[in-house]
Amino acid sequence: MQVGDVISWERTFTNEDVLVFSGLSGDKGTHHVNENEQGQLMVHGLLTATLPTKIGGDINFIAREISFEFHRPVFTGDTIKCDVVLIELEELEEKLNLSSSLSCTNQHGKVVLTGGAKGIILR
Questions:
Q1: Taking the CB of residue 90, how many other CB atoms lie within 10 A of it?
Q2: Which of 53, 50, 71, 73 lies closest to 63 in space, CA to CA?
Q3: Which string of b and e fits 30-58 if b means at least 16 CB within 10 Å?
Q4: Given a cut of 90, is residue 51 above it in pLDDT?
Q5: Could you point out which of 76, 86, 90, 93 has its C-alpha 20 to 30 Å from the C-alpha of 108?
Q6: Number of domains forming the structure of the chain
Q7: Residues spanned by the domain of 99
């Protein structure tokens, strides 16, 4: 890993994903459990935010700070691509300090989520 690296992950959300997350989170807002005219559900913001956390898990990242800004809704059937950019990387004896930025876009190239994270990777 080095500063400037980009790590990406992509996922298409399903109605089942949203309903399971509704049960786990307890967030059963009508927009998450009642389909719209196209048969879609609105994906929870924090379910969308699992894309960058999945990338963090892939590199054994332990978050200390995470910030998200939600720009537009995500609906089931949307394919979201998340790019995490490594901004700062400091090597210490037992860990790496890491700062990153993130951007998630839908299949139309529209930004749905941006943010960043700071934390550590244990060696």
A1: 11
A2: 53
A3: eebeeeeeeebbbbbeebbbbbbbebbee
A4: yes
A5: 86
A6: 1
A7: 6-13+43-122
Give the count of beta carbons closer than 10 Å to the beta carbon of residue 81: 16
- Domain for residue 67, yes or no? yes
Contact 54, 76 (CB under 8 A): no
Question: Can you read off the two tokens belonging to residue 61?
Answer: 């990242």
119 token code pair: 């934390």
120 contacts: CB under 8 Å, gap ≥ 6: 61, 62, 64, 95, 96, 97, 98
- Phi, psi at residue 80, to the nearest 5°? -110, 130
Is the model's pLDDT at 76 over the cut of 90?
A: yes
The count of other CB atoms within 10 Å of the CB of residue 117 is 22
Q: In the structure encoding, which two tokens stand for residue 95, read together?
A: 């860990």
Stretch 54-69: mean pLDDT, rounded?
Answer: 95
CATH code for the domain in which residue 91 is found: 3.10.129.10
Q: Which residues lie below 8 Å from residue 61, measured CB to CB, with a gap of 6+?
A: 55, 98, 117, 119, 120, 121
61 domain residue, yes or no: yes
